[in-house]
Please model this.
Amino acid sequence: MSRLCPSMSPVCVPRTLRLLRQLFPGLPAAMQRLYSLDVSAPLLRTQGYVDGRWVSAASVFPVLDPATGQEIARVSDCGPAEAKQAVDAAFKAFQSWKQRSAKERSVLLRRWFDLMTNHKEELARLITFECGKPLQESLSEVAYSASFLEWFSEEARRVYGDIVPSPNKDRKILLLKQPVGVSSIITPWNFPSAMITRKVGAALAAGCTVVVKPAEDTPLSALALAELAEQAGIPAGVFNVVPCSREKTPSVGEVLCTDPLVAIVSFTGSTATGKVLLRMAADTVKKASMELGGHAPFIVFDSADIDVAVRGAMASKFRNSGQTCVCSNRFLVQSGIHDRFVEQLGRAMDAELRLGHGSEPGTTQGPLINSRAAEKVVQQVSDAVSRGAKVLKGGKRLDGSFMEPTLLADVTTDMLCTKEETFGPLLPVIRFNTEEEALAIANASNVGLAGYCYSQDVSQIWRVMEALETGIVGINEGLLSTPEASFGGVKESGLGREGSKYGIDDYLDVKYVCFGGLKP
Ligand code: ADP
Model:
């Protein structure tokens, strides 16, 4: 085992110690080694991975532990040249990968899944150290991430075309499904592993090859996946990773979204960035798969089972400290149950939420990804308070990018937190009276990814489920994601669906073959 952090910079040492003391008063200095990333060498990769080779770039960029600000690695800062090499390698590899039988591709994906499962602890530590989430959640992410390789290893063998009844006796109509080609995969930091496999599993199963650009905050999980892909026997050029800094991102993004050899751009991230990528991809009319921002309503009706609703609210809101695109952003609670719900929720927050370093046992709330993210939550809280909201829990930013889990009551629809995605541990509660009012508030958004409804009135559930303008609906359930079900939004939340039997469609073209001249 090698410890990754020999090079803690002098600047971050005082800040790290101050933060550790604040979070864990009384922690002996010797215990601070607890926060070193211990991952065995093969999984700790810091170069780009292009055409089956580990490649260095002219410079490196730092990866920081968001909980302490400590540098945990220096990673090759790939630029447009490396991105172009990766696209060319993927294009070359596509010519043979698409010729492999579906079963061969399936076997390789399954091997990759097995390797992820065998290395789950190390992969989880990488996630915790580069993105900040508690280790338990990182382990869940690894299982979730690997499940897409398993799912698509199975789906690879079920890419059926059609034989369609023809109107002419001398013709047969065949609809063949074929892989689209090189896929550019651009992913966010909040699920550094799963957002890659959810796309790459589908792409490779279909017969496509990929170039992955991971988020600048979290390249280590992507590079560990490359190491395991190689061990699994995925051929050179099929899976490429070009990590890069924030500064290099636009030029690398330009190659990935405009190169004529790229057939599809698949992106998960903010709506604003998604629009930039879509515009770039338009010039060469690429396919696009976009999983963008959400602003999920969480509606609790008077008939709801209050224990179930509180449990769902806690799970949906506070997973990854509120940094998921399906997490509830606006809590709409009917007048008859409002006060009891808010009180019980406050008690659950006190009892269940523990701030700390993600590797510390018992931590449920890690830091936000960076101080910009924490600042956004602070701004939403102060805007809400200035317009009359009441802070029932939390409300303050702590050192670094830690933010207190915050409960706001008396929230109204003119407040910033009800108009834009928070991506942090802020739980704003709006009181409503009628179902129509709740639906009007829930649907008054230009995005629609997930929505949640808590009720025991079956007719009401059906009405609300159909009326919610979202791609995903949770009824009496706050955690929904699974590879068997489709994931994706409506409106400006994106294009296409990931996971499920539909997730492979974006990576396939349908070719109509008219087989004519047949003699009866
Ligand atoms: P955030 O602001 O939280 O980082 P983004 O949506 O901007 O959210 O980032 C998600 C992913 O999109 C990251 O991998 C980021 O590097 C990438 N990204 C951002 N801007 C561009 C761009 N111009 N071209 C390509 N990728 C981009």
User: Anything to note?
Assistant: Residues 186-188, 213, 215-216, 249-250, 253, 269-270, 273, 276-277 surround adenosine-5'-diphosphate (CB under 6 Å). The chain has 14 helices and 24 strands. The longest strand covers residues 172-179. The domain at 36-291 is CATH 3.40.605.10 (Aldehyde Dehydrogenase; Chain A, domain 1).
